[in-house]
Amino acid sequence: VRMPPFTKMFLAYQDQSFDIPDRTFHSTNTTWRLSSYESMTDVKELIPEFFYLPEFLVNREGFDFGIRQNGERVNHVNLPPWARNDPRLFILIHRQALESDHVSQTICHWIDLVFGYKQKGKASVQAINVFHPATYFGMDVSAVEDPVQRRALETMIKT
């Protein structure tokens, strides 16, 4: 969202305006906390840019993302202390972690969750990897007769 052409794509998706400042990605710590254990509905995964593109964390174009309810202006992404406020160091450490022996030995479990047999069915329940049916490929929205429910499903799928 902080760098072209992604900004243009984001604005097109959001009816030509930035999202509510409090919902805008502004802090790795806050996003980690919410998606890891505080909110069961805030589901996120790291996009590839976290491993190669430090520029996506910096608002070099000076976009006005607004002011959060706590009075803080949304600008550059706040990084964890170990990154020393350096997006390049942040990306480097992420890349090193991705290439580590631990990740090499365990990434197969993530692949099973996202692409493999733990996506659906009993294995997904046992792995606590169950989501609303509308989030899965193959949801037949046209089969929903109630127009309100159909619109709700279409909106859920779109967003």
Automatic annotation (TrEMBL):
Entries under Pfam families matching the protein: Beach
Entry-linked InterPro entries? BEACH_dom, BEACH_dom_sf, BEACH_Domain
Alphabetized, the UniProt keywords read: WD repeat
Coiled coil among keywords: no
Q: Does the keyword Ligase apply?
A: no
Question: Domain named BEACH: which ranges?
Answer: 1-159
Listed PROSITE patterns:
BEACH
Where does the secretion signal sit in this chain?
Answer: none
User: So which domain of life are we looking at?
Assistant: Eukaryota
Protein name as it appears in the record: BEACH domain-containing protein
Q: What organism is listed for this UniProt entry?
A: Micrurus surinamensis (Surinam coral snake)
